[in-house]
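I have been asked to look over a protein record a colleague put together. The record follows directly below this note.
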Amino acid sequence: QSMMISLAMWMMKAIMVFLRMTGFTMTEPELNIRPVQASDETEWRRLWKLYLEYYETELPEEIYQTTFSRILSDDPTTFFGMLALRGNQPIGLVHYVFHPSCWNIENVCYLQDLYVDKSQRGKSIGRALIEAVYEKADEAGCPDVYWMTQHFNEAGRRLYDRVATLSPFIIYER
């Protein structure tokens, strides 16, 4: 039995040496958050579609095209988008816009969409995307960042309760 244990330990060491030599690592690639680029359209579309599916929503192709065009625009009054990537793989997205407010002299920032791939949840990626929007808002001189979510988004709300203050406002729509 001790010979089998020794053999198993030798095999484990050999496997570890092989993995190190081939560059295998047990750690995940570093998280990178950056603005959406034109070359990201396929992956951006995949992530946004998954986000919309969560809210049981389908949109026509024209809206996908228009939204992506707005995100790529140089117009500072339209939407911005960022992707979270592990290595080269997009795993999350956020859309936000700066706009005037009657209650501030400065613009405020509305975070419209936030999505993290299901396989990557619980790894602080949503928090990192929100903090990236906070950073962009600070750079733009926006004192406030706000967003809404649906009452059943329990996992999202647990995160939001840690990174923001729940507003007492209720939203009405036409």
Remarks:
- Residues 48 and 115 are 7 Å apart (CA to CA).
- The two ends are 75 Å apart (CA to CA).
- The first strand starts at residue 31 and ends at 35.
